[in-house]
Specification:
Number of helices of chain A: 11
Largest sheet of chain B: none
Radius of gyration of chain A: 23 Å
Strand content of chain B: under 5%
Number of domains of chain B: 1
Shape of chain A: elongated
Number of helices of chain B: 15
Oligomer: heterodimer
Shape of chain B: globular
Distance between the termini of chain B: 49 Å
CATH class of the largest domain in chain A: Alpha Beta
Helix content of chain A: 25-40%
Largest sheet of chain A: 6 strands, mixed
Radius of gyration of chain B: 23 Å
Number of domains of chain A: 2
Helix content of chain B: over 70%
CATH superfamily of the largest domain in chain A: P-loop containing nucleotide triphosphate hydrolases
Number of strands of chain A: 14
CATH topology of the largest domain in chain A: Rossmann fold
Chain lengths: ~325, ~300
């Protein structure tokens, strides 16, 4: 359904995408994961025909974006991370306006609009002015808008950003429904547990390159047991935290009562050395070990490794 | 043979135009523009009536009926001035406003071509100008109570209003596409209007001055050489105010005053002098097409370029 080949995009000296390659099959929900500035939005904008690339090509259903952008737009529904709405338009009129852009008019436009408004659970607000809707409702309306021409591929850039847990849950349910209808969905998000639940495949992008792709299970298995390191401390908690902070392999250190949790990028030998160092300084350790793996820890592990290899700090 | 679908496509209104009309009439701003436009026009019209009849008979002791056509000139010039000020305000935020509202990106991901977006925007601003022009017809009709102006004269004036709306509208839309911010686009549009109306005239005036200095030696010898800036005078063809003057002067007089006015600066071919109005509006329409084409290129995301702040 979607094929990205050697995609490169530079903004001056900054390389946003560096030979990005990706293949997404029809009916997949693909989770695009990466830190801010990794190139997710740039890649999505190139797919949607909003940006040109320096080299490479994007194919949707075998059609090149560069060669036939108008044809591609019929196949894609795009929801940007930031979007505005028109004042003085009701939700149903907003939908009908976008329907008319695709040449759908009259009763057909109204029927499709009402069906999609129902899909995103906004039937009670069909006659409300768009600017009076809550943020979550606007996000759902924008998703309905992106479906007006029945696209085969949906590009959703941070669809749940800024939403409360309830609105996020509703958005997730709608995306699941769309998947059941056979849509291919590319979704970027920072809420990794939700992505892990929803997506059939994920790709972690770092510094414009695809670091890893596959199903969540495949990736976790391939990367080994690198879940967060958890310690329960009997005495000298502060000293243990200080030792951990001094270790460059430790990231995202968090403390809860007498427990310390951190992403630890070292191997088993380095882990053992850390434990010896802590104990030799007089810290009483009750428990020391790694938790089972998660997408979040994997993400931090991969992006953290890139940091070390690139010599930069985040 | 045209298929039914093609006929439907031709008859279908531009979706942007339709949306702009719908949202436009729902705002208080539209009513306010209508009120302000017609209020000012009525004020100037009644003032012109007062000057011609009441003031003339009270202080001059008589009414000079040959001056009555001046009422038309004053009302038409006022309406023209209002068009000059209104169109940039209506169009300079058309694209930059969409960008600021973050709705432009969504529009560009639909199947709508950039030129169609721009055409919809231009059509909505022209519609607004037509609405204003038609709503002002009762005020323009004041001159029919006296006579001297025909319906075809009024038609020609309405044509000028529409052409100027298209010309200034495409300038506004061009800058609105070029600049990210509406403020910058508005300043650039009004700046260009100032250059067109005043700048071109200053250019001719400066050229006349230089010409007079050059021929001052000849004048000393007693041979008068009138200034002639030659083909530079053609630059006035893109000056909306001069074209408006050419039209009104031809309607209330014979057009000879306009030709005399031009000859203060130089001589042109008699064909251009006599067909100034038609040539000027053709040039303005041609420039509008170029500006819209250029703006469409700027708006096309796949023909990437850097926006000016």
């Amino acid at each position: 359904m979607l094929e990205i080949k050697n995609l490169t995009k530079r903004y001056g000296k900054f390389t946003a995408l560096n030979n990005l390659n990706l293949h997404i099959n029809p009916g997949e929900i693909f989770g695009f994961v990466g830190p801010n500035g990794a190139g997710k939005t740039t890649a999505m904008k190139i797919i949607a025909g909003l940006l040109t690339c320096d080299t490479g090509e994007v194919y949707v259903d075998g059609i090149g974006v560069k060669a036939n952008p108008q044809e591609i737009k019929k196949k894609i529904g795009y929801m940007p991370d930031f979007f505005g709405v028109y004042d003085n338009l009701k939700a149903i009129e907003y939908m009908e306006f976008f329907a008319s852009i695709y040449g759908i008019e009259g009763k057909e436009a109204r029927d499709i609009s009402l069906r999609l408004i129902d899909l995103v659970d906004l039937t009670d607000h069909a006659d409300s002015y768009v600017d009076s809707l809550s943020r979550g409702m606007k996000q759902r309306l924008c998703l309905a808008r992106s479906l007006i021409h029945n696209p085969e591929l949906l590009i959703l850039d941070e669809p749940a950003s800024g939403l409360d847990p309830r609105a996020r849950y509703e958005m997730k349910e709608i995306i699941k429904k769309l998947h059941e209808q056979g849509k291919t969905i590319v979704i970027s998000s920072h809420i990794l547990p939700e992505l892990a639940q929803m997506c059939t495949n994920i790709g972690i992008i770092e510094n414009g390159k695809m670091a890893v792709t596959g199903t969540v299970e495949e990736i976790l298995a391939a990367k080994g047991s690198m879940g967060p390191l958890v310690m329960r401390i009997g005495e000298n908690l502060e000293l243990a935290v200080r030792i951990l902070k001094e270790d460059p392999r430790a990231k995202n250190i968090s403390i809860l009562e007498n427990s310390i949790s951190a992403i630890y990028l070292g191997d088993e030998k380095e882990q053992a050395n850390l434990l010896s160092a802590i104990v030799s300084q007089g810290v009483k350790v009750c428990c020391f070990g790694r938790e089972s793996n998660s997408l979040e820890s994997l993400f931090l592990q991969i992006t953290g490794q890139e940091d070390r290899e690139g010599g930069s700090s985040k | 043979m045209m298929t039914g679908r093609k006929v439907n496509q031709i008859l279908r209104l531009n979706p942007i135009y339709k949306k702009e009309l719908k949202t436009g009439v729902r705002t208080f701003k539209t009513s306010l523009i209508l009120l302000g436009y017609n209020g000012l026009l009525a004020l100037f019209g009644l003032f012109a009536f007062y000057l011609t009849f009441e003031y003339g008979s009270r202080y001059g002791g008589r009414v000079n009926y040959s001056d009555i056509l001046q009422i038309y000139a004053i009302i038409a010039a006022t309406e023209f001035g209002l068009v000059l000020f209104t169109v940039p305000a209506l169009t300079s935020g058309s694209i930059s406003g969409e960008r600021e509202k973050q709705t432009l990106e969504i529009l560009l991901t639909t199947g709508l071509k950039p030129i169609k977006i721009l055409r919809g925007k231009l059509a909505s601003s022209i519609s607004m100008m037509i609405l204003l022009a038609f709503s002002s017809l009762p005020i323009m009709g004041l001159v029919f109570s006296i006579g001297g102006i025909t319906l075809s004269d009024l038609g020609a004036f309405m044509l000028l209003v529409i052409v100027i709306a298209i010309f200034l509208g495409s300038i506004g839309i061009f800058f609105s596409t070029l600049f990210k911010r509406t403020t910058a686009a508005t300043v650039a549009t009004y700046g260009t209007l100032l250059i067109l109306v005043v700048g071109t005239f200053i250019l001719i005036w400066a050229a006349v001055m230089l010409d007079e200095i050059k021929f001052s030696t000849v004048n000393v010898n007693g041979i008068y050489q009138p200034p002639n800036v030659g083909n530079l005078l053609l630059v006035l063809l893109i000056n909306p105010a001069i074209t408006c003057y050419a039209l009104i002067e031809a309607q209330i007089g014979t057009g000879s005053n306009f030709i005399s006015f031009l000859r203060n600066f130089g001589t042109l071919s008699p064909f251009i002098e006599q067909h100034w109005f038609i040539i000027s509006i053709m040039i303005m329409l041609g420039l509008s097409v170029i500006l819209m084409w250029w703006a469409a290129k700027l708006l096309d995301p796949l023909k990437e370029r850097k926006h000016k702040k």
